[in-house]
Amino acid sequence: MKKLIYLALLLIIVYSVSLTGCGNSTEKTTGVKTKAKELTFSWNKDIGDLNPHNYSAQMFAQGLVYEPLVTYAEGGKIEPCLAEKWDTSPDGREITFTLRKGVNFSDGTEFNAAAAKQNFDAVLANAQRHEWLELINQIEKTEVSGDYTLKVYFKNAYYPALQEFALIRPIRFLAPTGFPENGQTSEAIKKPIGTGPWVLSEYKKDEYAVFTRNENYWGTKPKLEKVIVKIIPDGETRVIAFEKGELDLIFGSGVISLDSFKQLKESGKYETKNSGPLSTRVIAMNSNKGATKDLPVRQAIQHGINKQAVINGIFYGTEEKADTLFSSNLPYCDLKLKPYDYNLEKAASLLDNAGWKQADGKEFREKNGQALELELCFDSTDNIQKSAAEAMQGDLKKLGINLKLIAEESQAYNQRQKDGNFNLIFSETWGVPYDPHSLCSSMRKPSHADYQAQSGLSMKPEIDKKIEEVLLSTDEKTRQELYTYILKTLHEQAVYLPISYRTNMAVYHKNLSGFKFLSTQYDVPLTDIDIK
Amino acid sequence: MKKYIFRRLLNIIPVLLGISVITFGLIHMVPCDPAEVYLRLSQIPPTDEAVALVRSELGLDRPLYIQYFDWLWKVFHLDFGKSFVTRQPVLPSVLYYIPATIQLTACSLLLMFLISIPLGIWAALYKDSLLDQFSRILAFIGASMPSFWLGFLLLYVFSLKLDLLPVTGRGTFLHLILPSLTLALGYAATYTRLLRTSMLENLNKDFVLYARVRGIKEKLIIGKHVFKNALLPMITAFGMSLGHLLAGSVIVENIFAWPGVGRYCVFSIFSRDYPVIQCYVCLMAVIFVVCNLLVDIAYVYLDPRIKIGR
């Protein structure tokens, strides 16, 4: 027995020490030091299987390896990528893409119309899974009409098709050599081979991934030779790793706390930047439940929240105050709508006129003996939502509204969005390039908080009809008119309380140059970065 | 001894069956429908038709007891199903992460012994000395400081300020030091005090006085007689701690980006990946039960008075 105990102890020692040799011992992955032309940054989750037609991989990583037919540039402008040019038929039901010649996948296989069609077919074979994306529902078939010509036929004229072709998933292009034997990518792929500027060269699940520059890349080659992505789930650890020099760059939205961002910024040792507006943090107000059924109550809430104080106190000024559901820099969204200003008197008068009176000695307003109580639901794991909710609770108390905070874990919170079991709930627009069309499209689906929030509006059927029309419209003027109706109605009905425009943040060491944000939120701008 | 072990092994069967019922039952009692979770994780809108289809595919439309026996049968064949998120078989995924957690736990245990045994013995032998005071302070700190805070402090001092150790990763022996220390310190503090108290109790026993009268060397008395007897309460606590160390390393794994099974499980809990959660709970239950069994066996060995049936 004694021998056994000694043996067990010995095994513990040997095991704990020996396994350390199993990890990657290169300097890059251990993060002790990085060489020139190598950049290390971190992500909070494993990059996943890099299947371009699926959802289990991280979007930024899919964006490094795979490319779209077209890209989304500033202000919603569509620019060529793997497609050199495209022609849309007059009825809008056919787009002919002329593919770029001389593009090879990273393994040397040629990218042509046949390879593109193979990818389309794989995606369409799994259409149910992509039902959330109207583009997939609208594609009827694809056809190869030349080595470098691909025709896409649509069931209806669908104007946002080109924007959605620019998305990171599900339509990006995997090399034929990366397809599994059965040709179906719905479950798995053989190897992640794309045409993009980066090639996955080393990967250890949940530890790190190394991307090497694609030397066969057809476009502007990145200045960096290698990019190492370390998986660090905790934001504070990420900050320490960055300060120590194990990371060169921190990039993304919510990747570190705003306190840490402020501290890094104020230290003056690093470069810190915020992108332009990418999406909107909003609170959806349910027009079909409790006191928020009343328009004056919703309007009073709009006037009763001091958004600027939230932005200064919680976001440290890193985000811009939002007055409308979509930022005016998005297509069709510059409508000059009149913002709801912070005005407690106006808010109180709206409530008084609606019958919600504050009796003497009572803390909260009442109507027909019913106290003005509302529930604000948020994701308990999101500290920003929690802080903003607490600030709102204080603001609304001044108005005599009892705002109860309901913190729940993500799935339960999602369930409430779907069931409409809320008065107010935190939400977010989809961001570029999805906004405004994808979010508007989803407003018609009952499983979305937007649908639930709007379901009490008398003009809801009309809104849904206009959304359907706008997505199928072929005339620019009509489209603008339809969007104007939809967004103006939602604004006037005060269904959304926009808080701020969310941005991406970047912190990097001063030896790094060429950093600039892209117009989309999930692409990491690595192409122009250089290390001095 | 063999009979005792056999009897204890037999006792494990109903315990594990009970655990399997509770695990299965709890998962099915949570308010979210697994079919809806599956659809949401697959990016498929959870329409009524889609939910019905998935419920049928996953067998969720059958009576609960049939689902349970079917699940149990598969578990006996080491088939815990496929992850809702990755669509890969669960068991290989869990097993992929296990070595990192075991490595961390093993190293923490080692540190725990290396700190608590000498410190506990010295604190008892030199009662009320400076060393004893130090061990007391260490116990207070270790017991009261949450591991996430301790982890960050260690990172701040040893990685950022002194630049001695790496912040994250699992590459070399150096990467193992801080997470193991974070995990070990809390336990080491408790064990030091436990051993000290137990040592002091035994030092006052008659057999020690008798041994001294017989002229046996002090080192031998302490090492062979007192220490061995003092180990008993520590072994009991150790049995519980081993399971806790394995299952409770999640915070440390998160802070130090250690790719262990705890982190994987927490991610699965947040995404309601039921097959993974069930597999993890079952695995941890087995580890707990086996640890307790090993402790009981060690107990019988260390204290011959504890005999079966006596």
UniProtKB/TrEMBL annotation, chain A:
Keywords: Signal. Pfam families: SBP_bac_5. It is found in: Cell membrane. Transmembrane segments: none annotated. One of its GO terms (cellular component) is ATP-binding cassette (ABC) transporter complex. GO terms for biological process: nickel cation transport; peptide transport. The keyword Signal applies. It is a lipid-anchor. GO terms for molecular function: heme binding; nickel cation binding; peptide transmembrane transporter activity. Residues 77-448 form the Solute-binding protein family domain. Its main location: membrane. InterPro entries: CntA-like, Peptide/Ni-bd, SBP_5, SBP_5_CS, SBP_5_dom. It comes from the Bacteria. Belongs to the bacterial solute-binding protein 5 family. This is Nickel ABC transporter, periplasmic nickel-binding protein. It comes from Desulfofarcimen acetoxidans (strain ATCC 49208 / DSM 771 / KCTC 5769 / VKM B-1644 / 5575).
Automatic annotation (TrEMBL), chain B:
InterPro entries: BPD_transp_1_N, CntB, MetI-like, MetI-like_sf, Nickel_NikB, Opp2B. Keywords: Cell membrane, Ion transport, Membrane, Nickel, Nickel transport, Transmembrane, Transmembrane helix, Transport. Residues 98-295 form the ABC transmembrane type-1 domain. The keyword Cell membrane applies. It is a multi-pass membrane protein. It is found in: Cell membrane. The chain crosses the membrane at residues 12-30, 94-125, 137-160, 172-190, 230-257, 277-302. GO terms for molecular function: dipeptide transmembrane transporter activity; nickel cation transmembrane transporter activity. The complex is composed of two ATP-binding proteins (NikD and NikE), two transmembrane proteins (NikB and NikC) and a solute-binding protein (NikA). Belongs to the binding-protein-dependent transport system permease family. OppBC subfamily. This is Nickel import system permease protein NikB. It comes from Desulfofarcimen acetoxidans (strain ATCC 49208 / DSM 771 / KCTC 5769 / VKM B-1644 / 5575). The lineage of its organism: Bacteria, Bacillati, Bacillota, Clostridia, Eubacteriales.
